[in-house]
Amino acid sequence: KQCINAEYGDISDEFSQTILACKGNDTKIRIVLNKADKVTNQQLMRVYGALMWSLGKVLGTPEVARVYIGSFWDQPYSNDENRKLFEMEEEDLFKDIQSVPRGAIIRKLNDLIKRSRLAKTHSYIIAHLKNEMPAVFGKEAKQKQLINNLPAIFEQIQRATGLPAGDFPNIQEFSETLKKCDFSKFKPMNQAMVDALDKMISTELPRLMAQVPQDQEVFHEEYMRNLNKREGGALYDDDTTPFGLGETLDILNSAVPINDYQYEFEQLGPDADGKINGTQAKKPMQDSKLPNTTLKRIWALGDYDKDGKLDIREFSIVKHLIKLKLDGHELPVELPKIWLEGLEIDDFRR
What we know:
Blueprint: E1 2-5, H1 13-21, E2 31-34, H2 41-59, E3 67-69, H3 83-98, H4 100-132, H5 139-148, H6 150-161, H7 171-178, H8 191-210, H9 221-225, E4 227-229, E5 240-242, H10 262-267, E6 275-277, H11 278-286, H12 292-302, E7 309-311, H13 312-326, H14 337-340
Parallel strand pairs: 1-2, 2-3
Antiparallel strand pairs: 4-5, 6-7
Helix pairs in contact: 4-8, 12-13
């Protein structure tokens, strides 16, 4: 993965050399335009355009490079007018990373198929050259003639076998290689091996390809166990809420000051049951300018009964977690017991 700072957006000579050193591994490169929240929307457009122009010169490929834009940390955005864009780009990047194992398998299988077809074509060429050689006299002259006549020989083999033209080697490079060989020492083609190769290409490899998991099945089993999917609430959408590692801080050892958040909660218009839904809670939470990935973790902790709504106690916990995060502390893995004291915990569903 290559990360580029949006505050600068240029590609230095050293960075260009690093990218060029990755030639041949283009499918493994991921380009990230980081700290994109440090610039305005207009500045971001200019930086992105300049970056794409610079990458076009360095990469030298006809395909447009995929650049993921965002601010990839859990601190508040300096400028959140592109919040939705950053969230979508982050989601795309994570999906891309999750598909890497499957992509690697597909590339290896495709490479095996390609090499198998080239080996088959090569065997037909060698067999043809072997058969054209005289038994006793004029071997050297005949070999030179065959090398000079390679284009016609390739065309003849192609018509006789139906092999694709793309499976034949480069004539010039192949000619140079053949000049170092003695055609009379070539072994005759083993038809049984060619038939086995055909069977592998037409039957075995497609069967193996069918066993490759689809995109949605790529996720590692242990990773899936660490994801805690929640239903309901505007911040949940339809995705999963991963819990990161956190540490218990001394500041978590005091009770949540519910009275500090009472007025703000009432201004949001709770329902008859004294609760607000995810849509009502979304804006005051996003006012913190924390990334949605962080807000999802906060919601998952605060929505203790997992009903997709917040009462005053849960709302106070959410706001307190936001305050802790803005003060530079890590989020806890689970709520401290002192925060739950006095709550009707028996009514909650773990």
